[in-house]
Amino acid sequence: MTTPPAAPGNAEPVTLVQAVDAALEAELAADPRVVLLGEDIGRMGGVFRATAGLQARFGESRVVDVPACEAGFVGAAVGMCLAGLRPVVELQFDSFSYPAFEQIVCHLARYRWRTAGATEMPAVLRIPYGGGTHAPELHSDSPEALFCHIPGLVVVTPSSPADAYSMLRWAIRHPDPVIFMEPKRLYRSTRAALPADPDPEGLLRARVVRPGTDVTIVSYGPSVPTCREVAEMLAARGTSAEILDLRALWPLDQEAILASVRRTRRCVVVHEAARSCGVGAEVAALIAEHAMFSLDGPVVRVAGLDAPFPMFMLEDLYLPDPGRIVDAVEEALR
Amino acid sequence: MSLGFRSVGACAITRRATVLQLRRSGGGVARHGYVLDVIGSFGMGSGMPASRRGTGSVAVRAGSALARRPADKLRLWKMMVQLRAYDERATLLQRQGRIGAYPTFWGEEAIQAAAVLAVGDADWLFLSYRQNAVPVLRGLPPEQAWAYFRGDPRGFFDPSQFGCAPQCVPLATHLPHAVGWAVGRRLQGGDEVALAFFGDGASSEGDAHEAMNLASVLRAPVVFLCTNNQWAISTPLSRQAAVDHLSARAAGYGMPGVTVDGYDPLAVLGAVAEAVDRARSGGGPSLVEASCYRIGPHATADDPSLYRDEAEAALWREREPIGRFERQLQEEGHLATQDIIEEHERAASAMRDAGHRLDRMPVPTGEEMTAHVLAVPPPSWPRSSAPTLATAEQ
Ligand SMILES: Cc1ncc(C[n+]2csc(CCOP(=O)(O)OP(=O)(O)O)c2C)c(N)n1
Ligand SMILES: [Mg+2]
């Protein structure tokens, strides 16, 4: 892994989805082994326009429109890794990663092991995920924990344009397969200038996005801006909340989580994926194993329900909102 | 279902007749007046499954130059003998408890050897469990292939060393890999071809369909070689597909499809070599169906008498490809009885020695469970067993 070179100097603030596009462009330009695969990613630039302009610049053989066959093209990405390429695959929506599950579990995650380390699988699977966009059924899932449970994969998710840019560039250079979860609700919610240099933190570090002293709110991806909002509300009431953006969901940045919780002695975990066996359960278990006696209260989870993601008239009830997070913080502080 | 195929498919087939290498049948073989090109010397009379008996009048294609040179025929024969010796030794090792469950390929040697001979050295082979000896034809020590079957990670190997992807357990999931590899090599300026083996059962999997369609859309240099041995564990072909020949599927992908006699190594060689040439010269993928019969059990733990008449298997055993090829080579004057005896003895003794080397291989340690899973070790691994980032970056 070499550090990605500086950006071509884009000072204009960009959205998260434009940051994804810029990162893909930078890596396509930097390394002829990088190839993009996906449905509608070419002329159209992808359903979210995350690949806008890339086929025009890099051609049809490097930005490849594929038939609707997730197992087929994720499997083809495995074969491309065998041929020494670094494929970046767009799965159109969260739920449409499911047809590719067998290829991900049986091959992408195991090929390095099965070939005694002789073959790397430096593929990136980009998956727009999460709800809050009034989308049709099966367009709002948060399947990240499914991938975290498969040994052999790395699972990451950014929560800002700058992180999306840096983390995607790092992900493409990472030697192991990376599931790159993109919070689609945040694709166009804010703008920020891209960093001149990709963040030296690399790919696998959590980050304190707001320091605080009374409680640690651990979150990631689409829930991070909601947690920031909550922190402002709490500050007005005299409670200082620290927000830790996990960024890497597997492997977890154990040191960062434990260090923050040991300092604040209270912890709330927030994600919109279903509660049971979610990333929050792993964070809570980690804290119970290693920082039990630093805690002054229970670890409290705020998460989606253990129910299919609802039809969108009900999605605001499903998604963690500031009110539920504030209640959880109060429970943790009690 | 098959009626639907005939009435609907026939027009499509007629229209694309030249592309799909279909030919007008002389003897009213199929109701729609066309049959897929069926290559080989299916002179088997009652041995052929009933549904296939109608295609007895078949064109025996001359095949490539490869199939005509005596030296190539002898090389092909020796590879088949080596495969047979490997397979029989592996079955013995399993009975002696020196390896675990083993999927025998007894009778499928002609298909495997011919395919390996038909491709170039730089071409890659993508395998199912039934082709576990194919890497041995390309230099993998047999004991390393058997280590896999004793549950030892030393059975894993570097694919680039042998031009063979590791044997694939989930059916048909290696077919998309072949497509990606072939497209990837082409993108890097190579002219290599990928050849993927799969079975009649695997042909029903979604990945087989997705891979063949994707390959055709991308004009990927891939040869899909289906070993149709009529059985998928206990499931007969009639429960797997409602077409007479699996090669008929090719029409739906817009690629050529042929059926060959899987017990005739020269027929397989000819058909595969032609498909390889087409792929290499930019003509896109092909489907070759090698028709045969799974003479042995599915694997060493299987008892086929539970689901089929073993008398039928016994009939097929008489038609096994090695004896038949040897008779042919003898008639042509390329082989003497003594050569045959000596070659079998040489191959068997080499495999016996490999079995002894297997016994002397050290047993794996617990550390090997995490070895090679990831280049960058996670904090949840025991520190001592994880390779360091520094090693990963080298
Ligand atoms: C995805 C998947 N489903 C089921 C199995 C279990 N299984 C192993 S072999 C087999 C039959 C395969 O038959 P075929 O493709 O004809 O190959 P053959 O065994 O005849 O060589 C099945 C169902 C598997 N390996 N993979
Ligand atoms: Mg079969």
Keywords for this entry:
heterodimer; A: alpha/beta; Rossmann fold; 2 domains; 12 helices; globular; B: about 400 residues; six-stranded parallel β-sheet; two-stranded antiparallel sheet; 15 helices; disordered N terminus; disordered C terminus; binds thiamine diphosphate; binds magnesium ion
Descriptive report:
The complex is a heterodimer of chains A (334) and B (394). Chain A has 334 residues and is of the alpha/beta class. Chain A folds into two domains: 16-197, 3-Layer(aba) Sandwich (Rossmann fold), CATH 3.40.50.970; 205-333, Rossmann fold, CATH 3.40.50. Chain A has twelve helices and twelve strands. Chain A has helices at 16-30, 54-58, 70-82, 101-108, 111-114, 144-148, 161-173, 224-236, 254-264, 279-290, 315-318, 322-333, and strands at 34-38, 63-65, 86-90, 124-129, 154-156, 178-183, 207-210, 215-219, 241-245, 248-250, 267-274, 300-304. In chain A, strands 2-1-3-4-6-5-10 form a seven-stranded mixed β-sheet, sandwiched between helices. In chain A, helix 2 links the parallel strand 1 and strand 2. The radius of gyration of chain B is 22 Å and the shape is globular. The longest helix of chain B is centred in the first third of the chain and has 26 residues, at 70-95. In chain B, the strands form three sheets. A six-stranded parallel β-sheet of chain B has the order 3-9-10-6-5-4, sandwiched between helices. With 394 residues, chain B is of the alpha/beta class. Chain B has 15 helices and ten strands. Chain B has one domain (3-364): Rossmann fold, CATH 3.40.50. Chain B has helices at 2-15, 50-53, 70-95, 109-118, 134-137, 142-149, 159-162, 175-187, 206-217, 249-253, 265-280, 310-317, 321-331, 337-360, 389-393; strands at residues 23-24, 34-35, 37-39, 124-126, 194-199, 222-228, 231-232, 235-236, 257-261, 286-291. In chain B, helix 6 (142-149) packs across helix 14. Classes of the chains: A alpha/beta (334), B alpha/beta (394). At the A-B interface, helix 3, helix 4 and helix 5 of A face helix 7, helix 8 and helix 9 of B.
